[in-house]
Amino acid sequence: MTLFKRLINNDLYTNLYICLVLSKQVVNRYMQTEAGQSGPNKKVDQNAQGDGETPPNAARQEWLSLLATADADQLAVLWSATGLAPAHRMLRQPEIGAVMVRGRAGSTGDAFNLGEMTVTRASLRLDDGCVGHGWCQGRSKTQATTIALVDALMQGDHANQLEAAVLAPLREAREGRHAARAAKAAATKVDFFTMARGED
């Protein structure tokens, strides 16, 4: 297995860099193309800029990042449990491609290109006009479509329901993975110390 494959299969790199690559690209690129439309999408932009300090679309970035890094099976179960099946029209059929994964040496150095990662994306529009975009790692077209549906519904009246039924459990699961990884790393921690040399 190559170094890149070992890194990308590591949960730490997956969670860190897919958040950076996917959520920012989805929000910055696609919401700019939809900026001129009316309806709930525009309302999300206004709310995100309300306090003058929160970056535009910060809330949407957070839930897209969470969905993009979620376990596919858990997401499918949570989505199915909501019982939601909104009518929609596909703007972009699910398609498989690649994005460049970037890293930083020691998390502080200059950014460098680590390699390409396979992703799947989809875009759709609900009957009420809300547009949703979904990106995920791998080749699951179903997962990308589900993420796009959640993204679109989060801009409307179902936001509170989805926050409680889908996003909150996914957030809890992510925190659990982070805690488990931190505990595993702590178990291998080595403390170095210097002994004071006494007088001869």
Layout of SSEs?
Blueprint: H1 3-9, H2 11-33, H3 40-48, H4 58-68, H5 72-82, E1 88-104, E2 111-126, E3 131-137, H6 141-153, H7 159-187
Helix pairs in contact: 2-4, 5-7
Overall outline: elongated
Rounded to an integer in angstroms, the radius of gyration calculated over CA atoms is: 20 Å
Biggest sheet, open or closed, and with what strands and sense?
A: 3 strands, antiparallel
Overall residue-averaged pLDDT value: 78
- Alpha-beta content class: alpha+beta
Oligomer: single chain
- Give the DSSP E fraction (strand runs of 2 or more residues): 15-25%
What is the count of structural domains? Answer: 1
Describe this entry's structure for a reader.
α5 (72-82) packs antiparallel against α7 (159-187). The protein has one domain (3-165). It is 52% helix and 20% strand. The model is unreliable at 1-23 and 26-50 (pLDDT under 50). A hairpin with a 6-residue loop joins β1 (88-104) and β2 (111-126). By secondary structure, the protein is of the alpha+beta class. The protein has a 3-stranded antiparallel beta sheet.
